[in-house]
C-alpha cells in the first residue's frame, strides 16, 4: 500500500525547493548611497552556515506581500507547481487523481509571504526593502522581474553544461594519474584485508 503521507511530504519538499531560488534572484543591486539599517556592501554576505545577526529594522510583512505581488510570485508558484505535478503524475500514475488535486488546492491556500517573512527579515532591512520596491514599481523593474526566471533557468543550464565540459577535460588530462591511484588504492585495501569497492 502506498504511504500517501510520505508521498505528500516528499513532493512538498521538492516543490518548495524548486520555488525558493526564484525569490533572491529577482532582488536588484542596492541603490547607491543607501545606508539603511542592515545595509551590506557587495561581497560582504555572511556564509550560509553562519546565522546572520539581522537588521535592526527588518522588512515588514506588508513590504514582503507587496514585493511578492510585484514579483507575480503566486502565479509563478502555481505554474511551477502544476508543471512539477504533471511530471510526478507521469512517474507515479498509480496515485489517485484526488491526491494531485489535494496538492494544488493545499498549495493555493498557502500565504508564502508569511512563510518566508522570517527568512527575509534575517537579510533585508525595511530601508533596503523600500529601495527594492521602488525599483520593482518602475517599468524597468517589472521588465527585470518578468525575464528573471527564464534568465536564471538558462544560466543554470549553461553553468551545468560548462561544469560537465570542465569535468570531462580535467578527468581526461588526469586519466592515467587517476587510474594509477585507483589501482594503488585497491591494492592497499587488498593487503589490509578490507573488502574491495566495486
Keywords, separated by commas or semicolons:
198 residues; 2 domains; 9 helices; extended; single chain; disordered N terminus; mainly alpha
Overall tally of domains: 2
C-alpha end-to-end distance: 34 Å
* Quaternary structure annotation: single chain
In DSSP terms (H or I, runs of 4 or more residues), the helix count works out at 9
How many strands, which pairing sense, and closed or not: the largest β-sheet?
Answer: none
Helix content range of the residues, please? Answer: 55-70%
Unreliable stretches, pLDDT < 50, 5 or more residues? 1-44
Strand content: under 5%
CA-based shape = extended
Please write the string of helix (H) and strand (E) elements.
HHHHHHHHH
User: What structural class do you assign from the helix and strand content?
Assistant: mainly alpha
| Rg on CA atoms, Å | 23 Å
Detailed description of the structure:
With 198 residues, this protein is an all-alpha fold. The protein folds into two domains: 1-24 and 55-137, no CATH class; 147-198, no CATH class. The chain is 69% helix and 0% strand. It has nine helices and no strands. It has helices at residues 4-19, 22-25, 61-70, 73-91, 97-108, 112-123, 126-136, 139-173, 175-192. The chain starts with a helix and ends in a 6-residue tail after the last helix. Mean pLDDT is 79; it is low at 1-44.
